[in-house]
Q: What sequence folds into this?
């Protein structure tokens, strides 16, 4: 558990949104001083405090403007946006600004993609020389209730080709183009999964330098994978994108807390090195709650261990603390359950 007595103040960007309100609730429960911040403002000042948590998912332009100002001012940033392209932008910005300002950044800090990053790290602990990583997510067969920010992120992701890591090189990852059988343990069981633009290809190589291949997936039946491909192709045309943006603009309903509490999620990370397969998985309900608790956990750790000038830059979720401790902290809060196993592969 991170030491909390040294925390001065945390600022939440987008505190009025679905995820931002939940982050504020976790901070209040932990008695951590915090303040809200409007993404419409142009800059940041010392009143922001030690850490900025970005949760303004519906306003990407405002988020980027405030994030850049915070990093240049030496303020650590935790960003929960799930769009993989935005995560790559964040890491590039932090790598450029962080070394001089001393600010650190943890992007993709929500359920997607932090849980996959943490599970990959604990699965890799069982594997000598990990080389290949496959991470899959599932809604457990139930209905997903997207927040406004998640809908914006999904549209943005469909409009651009994702990036995976293959043999040490970034390669295009068209949505739905790659298929795989994801080995979720019970109660879900093995499920067909389709490739999605994921964040693990950005974060995992930071803490597992021997890994050469990283792909991310979403569990779905065959016809949904075909639909995903069709939507991705449609979103890459100007006319199709305008049509999808109109649909997005008319769907502004925020999911109710009771709906989110019933929503299931799961994630499994499979890591292969040599003849060993390591697997780690987690299950839970309420994806907004796990995102909020992850964001606060990362924020508290950053606030408790400030870097000196010249030590800033991007961080993967698994670089803040031993990943098993972070997962155990979430399990103790009743947010998730997790476990891991490993298998010796047969020679072919």
A:
């Amino acid at each position: 558990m991170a030491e909390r007595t040294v925390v001065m103040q945390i600022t939440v960007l987008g505190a009025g949104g679905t995820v931002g309100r939940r982050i504020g609730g976790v901070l209040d429960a932990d008695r951590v001083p915090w303040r809200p911040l409007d993404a419409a403002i142009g800059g940041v000042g010392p009143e922001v405090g030690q850490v900025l948590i970005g949760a303004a998912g519906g306003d990407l332009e405002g988020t980027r403007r405030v994030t850049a100002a915070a990093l240049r001012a030496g303020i650590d940033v935790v960003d929960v946006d799930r769009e993989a392209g935005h995560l790559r932008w964040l890491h590039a910005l932090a790598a450029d600004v962080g070394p001089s300002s001393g600010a650190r950044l943890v992007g993709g800090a929500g359920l997607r993609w932090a849980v996959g990053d943490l599970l990959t790290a604990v699965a890799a602990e069982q594997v000598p020389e990990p080389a290949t990583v496959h991470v899959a997510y599932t809604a457990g067969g139930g209905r997903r209730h997207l927040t406004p920010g998640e809908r914006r992120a999904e549209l943005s992701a469909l409009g651009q080709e994702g990036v995976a890591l293959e043999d040490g090189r970034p390669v295009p990852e068209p949505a739905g183009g790659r298929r795989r059988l994801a080995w979720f343990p019970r109660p879900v069981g093995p499920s067909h999964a389709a490739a999605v633009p994921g964040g693990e290809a950005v974060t995992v190589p930071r803490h597992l330098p021997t890994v050469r291949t990283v792909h991310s997936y979403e569990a779905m039946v065959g016809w949904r994978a075909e639909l995903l491909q069709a939507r991705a192709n449609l979103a890459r045309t100007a006319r199709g994108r305008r049509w999808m943006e109109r649909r997005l603009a008319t769907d502004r309903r925020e999911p109710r807390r009771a709906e989110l509490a019933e929503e299931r999620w799961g994630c499994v990370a499979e890591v292969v090195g040599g003849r060993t397969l390591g697997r780690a998985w987690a299950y839970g309900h309420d994806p907004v709650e796990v995102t909020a608790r992850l964001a606060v956990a990362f924020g508290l750790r950053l606030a408790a261990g400030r870097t000196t000038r010249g030590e800033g830059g991007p961080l993967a979720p698994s670089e803040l603390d031993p990943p098993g401790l972070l997962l155990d902290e979430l399990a103790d809060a009743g947010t998730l359950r997790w476990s891991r196993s490993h298998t010796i592969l047969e020679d072919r």
Remarks:
- The chain is about 40% helix and 25% strand.
- Residues 111-287+336-344 form a domain with the Dihydrodipicolinate Reductase; domain 2 fold (CATH 3.30.360.10).
